[in-house]
Write a structure and sequence with these properties.
The protein is mainly beta. It has three helices and ten strands, in the order ββααβββαβββββ. The strands form three sheets. It has a five-stranded antiparallel sheet with strand order 5-4-3-7-6. The chain has a three-stranded antiparallel sheet with strand order 8-9-10, with no helix packed on it. Strands 1-2 form a two-stranded antiparallel sheet.
């Protein structure tokens, strides 16, 4: 598979590779419905672990196997290590209870009913994350 942008190759590879590891923001937002959530933030160290932090209310611990690739993609700006994190909607789990120490609560901004699915928009300050519930029943 080849993804072109204005006649220039953005990425080529197997469909699963392009979907799961897009080379650019353009590819990440083009492939998949809804598009990949793109979140700007910084990489910080907390208690010896790497974390991705966006705004004051949103931080995710970076899995050890992903730290190097995220740091490679990051840039230095104003003394911080800034990066853009891509989150696919199917990687967001909805629940009424805390699922793990790394889970967090976000307010639901909107619910959009689509055929057999519900698309939920979760708000963090000015950022909105989109996730889908294929069952259309809401959190478990």
């Amino acid at each position: 598979m080849v993804v072109l942008r204005k006649g220039v190759i953005e990425q080529e590879g197997k469909p699963e590779e392009i979907y799961n590891r897009p080379a650019t923001d353009f590819v990440g937002s083009l492939i998949g419905e809804p598009p990949m959530n793109l979140v700007d933030g910084e990489i910080i160290t907390r208690n010896g672990a790497a974390w991705f932090k966006a705004h004051e209310d949103f931080s995710i611990q970076i899995r050890d196997d992903k730290v190097e690739s995220l740091k490679k993609a990051a840039q230095q700006a104003g003394g911080s290590t800034v990066a853009r994190l891509g989150i696919r909607c199917e990687h967001i789990r909805l629940s009424h209870q805390k699922l793990s120490d790394n889970s967090f609560q976000l307010p639901v901004y909107a619910i959009v009913h689509r055929s057999r699915k519900q698309r939920r928009h979760l708000r963090i300050k000015k950022l909105v994350l989109i996730c889908e519930d294929p069952r259309g029943k809401g959190p478990s």
